[in-house]
Amino acid sequence: MTITHAERTQISYNSRGYAEVLDFVYREAELLDLRRHQEWLALLTDDVRYVIPVRVTTAHTLDDSVMGDMAHLDEDRYSLGKRVERFATEHAWAEDPPSRSRRYVTNVRAWEGDEPFEFIVGSNVLLFRSRGDIHEPDLVSAARSDVLRRVDGTLRLARREVLLDESVVRMQNFAVFL
Amino acid sequence: MPRDIQGILDDVRHGMIPAVVYSDGEIFELEKQRVFARAWMFLAHESEIPEPGDYVVRRIVDDSFIVTRDEHAEIRVLFNMCLHRGMQVCRSELGNASHFRCPYHAWTYRNTGELTGVPFHGDAYGGDAGLARSGVSLLSPPKVDTYAGLIFASLDPSAPELATYLGGFQFYLDFYLRQSEAGAEIRGPQRFRVKANWKIGAENFAGDTYHTPHTHASVVDINLFAAPKARKRKEGALYFAGTGGGTTYKLPTADFRENLLSIGYPDEMIARMQAVWDPDHRAMVGSSGFMPSAATLLPNLSFVHNWPIVNADGLVAPFISMRLWQPVSATETEVYSWFCVDRDAPADYKAASYKAYLMCFGSSGMFEQDDVENWTSITQMSRGRMAERLNLHSRMGLLRDDEPVTPPIEWPAPGRARVGFGEFNQRELLGLWCDLMANDDSPSVTNGARRRYATVS
C-alpha cells in the first residue's frame, strides 16, 4: 500500500481544499479522542469501508508486507454502527472504564480524487492509549490512506485503509479506532 | 523459597486453584520443560503453505521453526537455527523459498533442511574431509504429524503418536476443519499480545459457558444474535474427550439439516457435511441437537464457532476461528487468531463468514475484547502477596463431597458430556496439565551433533 500518489494532482498546502481536509482530520481525531462515537459515525458515508490489514514481516522489501486476505478490522456502516452501539451499553468491558486516548495526526497530504467531489488523503497517526492505572500505555503508529467525499456540502469519510507499523500488535485489542 | 509444586498440583486437582499458577515465574519455567517440551504443539495449517516452497515461521515457546513445503510437496519442520554459529536462518514470517541462507556466513540450506552451501568449503574446511555437507541438515523436532491439515510437533521423542494423544478429541476437530472432503482453508493469523497467562484463555474456551451471560452481555444488548438469550448457554452440553473438551449450543430441532440451516449454513455445505461426517457427528448435531461452539486441545490450541447477524438485513452467518495461546512469559501471551472456512464453501458464504469472525473474535472481536479484559486482570491480581493466600474456586458442578450436581447425559460422541453450567472441562484440562507437571522425568534430549559431523564416509 502506498500513500504517495505520483500520478495524481496534489492539492496545494495553501488551498482552501487543503484547509478543509486538515479541518476534517483534526475534528475527526478529536471526536475519537473524546469518545463521541455517534458524532464520529455521522462523519462517515453510508458506503464507508474501514480496513486495518494485518501487517507481516517479509524478506527483502515491504511491498508484500500486508496480508491480502486478513485484517484486524474490515468494516462497513453496519459493523461500525454495532461497535459504536456496543460502547453505549453497560457491558462493554474492554472500554469500561474508558481509555484515555490521544491521536496525533501528521504528514497530511491531499490529492484530487477519482471524482471531482473527492479527495485522496494520506496521513500518519500516532495513538497514545492509557487504561486504568496498572499497565503501560499503548503507542500505535500507522499511516492512513483515506477517501474523503463531499456530501451535501460537507466532507465525509468514504474509505480508510490503515497501514500499521507493527506485525504483532502490542495493544491488547482494537476497541479504539485509528 | 521454592514453591511446593506438589501441594499446588494437589489443590488444582481438587478444583481449588492457587492463584499463583497464573503468574508465577517458577511454575512457568517448569511448564516450559514439562508441558510445552512434551505435548503435541500446533505450528501451522497445511493451507497456509499450499505451494512448494511456501513457508511460515512459528514458535514453540522459545524455539523458532520454519514450517515449509518442499518441492515434492512434503511438509518439513526445520529448527530455524544455523548449524554453524546459531543465527536465526529465516527471519521473515512467511514467504516462498527453495533455499534458506544464513545472514551471518551464508551457510545455505535447501527447504528440506539439507545443508547445500558452505562458502570456501575447500579452503576453510578442507572440503568434505573436514565438513561433510551430505547428510547434514537443520534439526527437526523429534516428532511431527498432521491431522485435518493441522501440523503439530512434539519435542519429546517418547511422546505418544498424535492420534493417541488426541484420543476422542480428534472427532470434534472434524466439526471445525472437515466440513467437506476438501477440508478447511485458514487465513491469518492476527497476532496480538495480551498481558495474561496462557492457561486462562485455554480454560475459558474449554468450558466456560458460565461467563457468557455477563461478560458478553453487550453483544446481546446490541442484537448481534438472532437467538438472543445468553442464558441459553446453560442448555448446551459440555463434553471432554481425550486431551480436549468444549462447549456446545442446544439447537432448535432434532433434524440435522434444519439445525444447520437455522445457524446459517447453506444447503450445499450441509450436503457436504452430511457426506463427510460419521453417523455420530450427524447424531450429535441432528437427533441430539448440540452444535460445537468453543473448545480447547491441551495445552494451548482453541477453537470457536458461532453465528452472529452480519448485515442490516439480518443475515446470520457462522464462522470458525482457531487460536493459539502462545506463551511469552508467565504473565504475557501472544494470541495467534486464524479464520477457518471450508475450502468448497461458496464465495458469498466465505465473505459473510469472514465478516462474522472479525465482528466477534480476534484482535477487534467484540467477544474477545471483553474476554481479554478479564484475563489480564486475573493475571495482574494473581501476582501479589494476598493472592498467595487465595485458592480460586473452580468446583462448579460438584457438591462438597465431590458428587456431581447433574449426572452425565446420553451422548452419541466420544467422551463424557453434561448439560448445564459446570467447570468439569476446566478441571479435566488442568488435571492433564497436572499430570504433565507432576512428571519429573525430563523428556530425553539427544544431541546428535557429534554423530552428524564426525564420520566422513
Strand residues, percent of chain B: 25-35%
Task: Round the mean pLDDT of chain A to the nearest integer and report it.
Answer: 95
Biggest β-sheet description of chain A:
6 strands, mixed
Biggest sheet overview of chain B: 8 strands, antiparallel
Report the end-to-end length of chain A measured between terminal Cα atoms: 17 Å
Portion in strands of chain A: 35-45%
Largest interface: A-B, 40 and 45 residues
Number of strands of chain B: 20
CATH architectural designation of the largest domain in chain B: Alpha-Beta Complex
Please provide a brief summary of the model.
By secondary structure, chain A is α+β, with helices and mostly antiparallel strands. Chain A has helices at 16-33, 37-41, 77-87, and strands spanning 44-55, 66-75, 100-112, 118-130, 138-151, 154-164. In chain A, strand 4 (118-130) and strand 5 (138-151) form a beta hairpin.
Question: What does this protein look like?
Answer:
The complex is a heterodimer of chains A (178) and B (457). Chain A is 19% helix and 41% strand. With 178 residues, chain A is α+β, with helices and mostly antiparallel strands. A six-stranded mixed β-sheet of chain A has the order 2-1-6-5-4-3. The longest helix of chain A is centred in the first third of the chain and has 18 residues, at 16-33. The mean pLDDT of chain A is 95. With 457 residues, chain B is of the alpha+beta class. Chain B starts with a helix and ends with a helix. Chain B folds into two domains: 42-146, Rieske [2Fe-2S] iron-sulphur domain (Rieske Iron-sulfur Protein), CATH 2.102.10.10; 167-438, Naphthalene 1,2-dioxygenase Alpha Subunit, Chain A, domain 1 (Alpha-Beta Complex). The relative contact order of chain B is 0.16. Chains A and B meet through strand 2 and helix 3 of A and strand 12, helix 8, helix 12 and helix 13 of B.
Chain-wise SSE layout:
The complex is a heterodimer of chains A (178) and B (457).
Chain A lengths: L15 H18 L3 H5 L2 E12 L10 E10 L1 H11 L12 E13 L5 E13 L7 E14 L2 E11 L14
Chain B lengths: L4 H9 L2 E3 L6 H12 L4 E5 L8 E7 L2 E7 L5 E5 L14 E3 L2 E3 L6 E3 L4 E3 L3 H5 L17 E5 L2 E5 L7 H5 L2 H9 L6 E11 L3 H10 L4 H4 L1 H5 L15 E5 L2 E7 L5 H7 L4 H10 L2 H7 L4 E8 L3 E6 L12 E11 L2 E11 L4 H14 L7 H14 L9 E3 L22 E4 L4 H15 L10 H6 L3
Antiparallel strand pairs in B: 1-19, 2-11, 3-4, 3-6, 4-5, 7-8, 8-9, 10-11, 12-18, 13-14, 13-20, 14-15, 15-16, 16-17, 17-18
Helix pairs in contact in B: 1-14, 2-14, 6-14, 9-10
